[in-house]
Amino acid sequence: MSGKDQRKLLRSIEDWRKILPYAPIAAVVVVIVAALGMDLAFGGPSKPEIENAAAPPEVVRATIEAAPVSPTPYVAAATETPTAVPTEDTGPVAQMRDQRRISDLANIAAALEQYREKEGEYPTTGGNIQTVCTYKDIDAGCKLEDFLGSIPADPKGDSVKNGYWYSSDGKTFTLVAAVDLSTSATPATCEQRFAQHTKKANLYCLTGP
């Protein structure tokens, strides 16, 4: 190597010695410049993610309690129209039905007397209450068919609901009919058990003998 080349190499080494202490700083600057360039390229610095955007329960509860509550407007309850209670049928048809019932019980009572004269006692129900003759297998009053031909029935029909009733211990008897008019009823001669059994307000009772 010539002397000229040696001097050039020494100058280069000296130049690197001067630059070398600043190399770390230059590297940092390069890195920062590169990062800024990337941020600008992708729309600016990224924002940190919020792991949970929902407010804490205490904050939500406090917000709800502090919110003004609108008073609920008062709405008057609808008034129901009372159901009309049917009044007692006091017309001529009701009077005719009651007259028919009283006449039917009188005819049944006459047949009972004929039966007693023949058999020595009235058809017995054991003191219980039965329809006069709705159930032919069990109703004691059906024994009167030989004297009446056919057992009279309430003019409203439905002998279970509106029929005539009979009770006897063999020595006495009571015949019962539900009547339309309170003036046709005979509460003084009707036992309470008949009202409970028939569930009727107005009863006409005929007892014998």
Structural features, described:
The chain is of the alpha+beta class and 209 residues long. It folds into 2 domains: 1-42; 92-208, Glycoprotein, Type 4 Pilin, CATH 3.30.700. Helix content is 43%, strand content 9%. It has 7 helices and 4 strands. Strands 1-2-3-4 form a 4-stranded antiparallel sheet, with helices on both faces. The model is unreliable at 46-52 and 81-87 (pLDDT under 50).
> Which H/E pattern describes the elements?
HHHHEHHEEHE
At the fold tier of CATH, the topology name of the largest domain is: Glycoprotein, Type 4 Pilin
Based on the coordinates given, report the CATH architecture of the largest domain: 2-Layer Sandwich
Count of helix runs? 7
* Global structural class: alpha+beta
How many structural domains does the protein architecture include? 2
Please report the first level of CATH classification, the CATH class of the largest domain: Alpha Beta
Subunit arrangement of the protein: single chain
Helical content band: 40-55%
Distance between the termini: 168 Å
Principal-axes geometry comes out as rod-shaped
Overall pLDDT score: 77
Largest sheet: 4 strands, antiparallel
Strand order of the largest sheet: 1-2-3-4
Rg over alpha carbons = 57 Å
Strand content: 5-15%
Regions with little confidence, pLDDT below 50 for 5+ residues? 46-52, 81-87
Number of β-strand runs: 4
